[in-house]
C-alpha cells in the first residue's frame, strides 16, 4: 500500500533475464555459425523447401509468397551492389576502379553475405509462420503474380548487370587466386639458351 510497486518489478525481472539469456545464446549461435557458409545456406534451402511444401499443401498464401519474393529480390540487389556506388556518390578514395590503370580495390558489398543469409532465413521463417494465420490467405490469381514477379526480376537483373558492365566490377570471387609460377615452356626454353 505504500506505492512502491514491488510486485510488478519482481515479475518483470525474471522475464528480462530470460530474454537477455536467450538473446545472448542466440548471438553466440550466430557467431559460431559464421565460418560455416555451406551449412548455413543448406539450412536456408531446407527452410525454403519447408515453406514451399507448406504453400503447395495449403494451396494458398500466394500474396505472402509474392511479398517474400520481392523482399528476397531487394536483398539480392543489395548483395550484388558495391558499398560505394560510383553512379550516386562522389568517390572519396574507396571507389571501384573505372580504368585499367586504376589501382585495384577489392569489391565490398553493400549487404555482406552473413547479413544476406540471416535476412533471407528470417524472411522464410516469418513467411512460414504467416501461413498459419488465415488473415494472410488473400484469394488471388497466382499466375499473374508469378508473371509480374518474373518481369520485375528480369528488368531488375538487367539493370544490375548493365551497372556491373559499366563500372567493371564482378561481385563474386571463386576461391583464392594462386600464384602458379612460370610455365613449363618458358623455363625449358630459357635453359636451352644457356
Structural key phrases:
extended, 194 residues
How many beta-strand elements?
0
Q: Give the helix/strand class.
A: mainly alpha
Distance from N terminus to C terminus (CA atoms, Å) equals 104 Å
**Tally of helical runs:** 6
The shape is: extended
Assembly classification = single chain
Q: What would you say this structure looks like, in words?
A:
Helices cover 63% and strands 0% of the residues. The chain has one domain (24-171). The model has no long low-confidence stretch (mean pLDDT 83). The chain starts with 5 loop residues before the first helix and ends with a helix. The chain is built from six helices and no strands. It is mostly helical and 194 residues long.
Topology:
Layout: H1 6-33, H2 37-58, H3 62-80, H4 113-130, H5 142-167, H6 184-193
Helix pairs in contact: 2-4, 3-4, 3-5
Q: What does this entry show, briefly?
A:
Helices cover 63% and strands 0% of the residues. By secondary structure, it is mainly alpha-helical.
Amino acid at each position: 500500500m505504500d506505492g512502491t510497486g514491488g510486485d510488478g518489478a519482481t515479475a518483470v525481472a525474471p522475464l528480462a533475464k530470460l530474454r537477455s539469456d536467450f538473446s545472448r545464446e542466440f548471438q553466440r549461435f550466430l557467431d559460431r555459425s559464421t565460418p560455416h557458409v555451406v551449412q548455413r545456406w543448406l539450412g536456408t534451402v531446407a527452410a525454403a523447401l519447408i515453406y514451399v511444401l507448406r504453400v503447395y499443401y495449403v494451396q494458398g498464401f500466394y500474396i505472402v509468397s509474392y511479398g517474400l519474393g520481392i523482399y528476397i529480390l531487394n536483398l539480392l540487389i543489395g548483395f550484388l551492389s558495391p558499398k560505394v556506388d560510383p553512379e550516386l556518390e562522389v568517390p572519396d578514395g574507396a571507389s571501384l576502379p573505372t580504368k585499367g590503370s586504376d589501382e585495384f580495390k577489392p569489391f565490398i558489398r553493400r549487404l555482406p553475405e552473413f547479413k544476406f543469409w540471416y535476412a533471407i532465413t528470417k524472411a522464410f521463417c516469418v513467411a512460414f509462420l504467416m501461413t498459419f494465420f488465415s488473415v494472410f490467405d488473400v484469394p488471388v490469381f497466382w499466375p499473374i503474380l508469378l508473371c509480374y514477379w518474373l518481369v520485375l526480376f528480369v528488368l531488375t537483373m538487367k539493370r544490375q548487370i548493365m551497372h556491373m558492365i559499366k563500372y567493371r566490377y564482378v561481385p563474386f570471387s571463386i576461391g583464392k587466386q594462386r600464384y602458379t609460377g612460370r610455365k613449363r615452356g618458358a623455363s625449358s626454353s630459357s635453359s636451352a639458351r644457356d
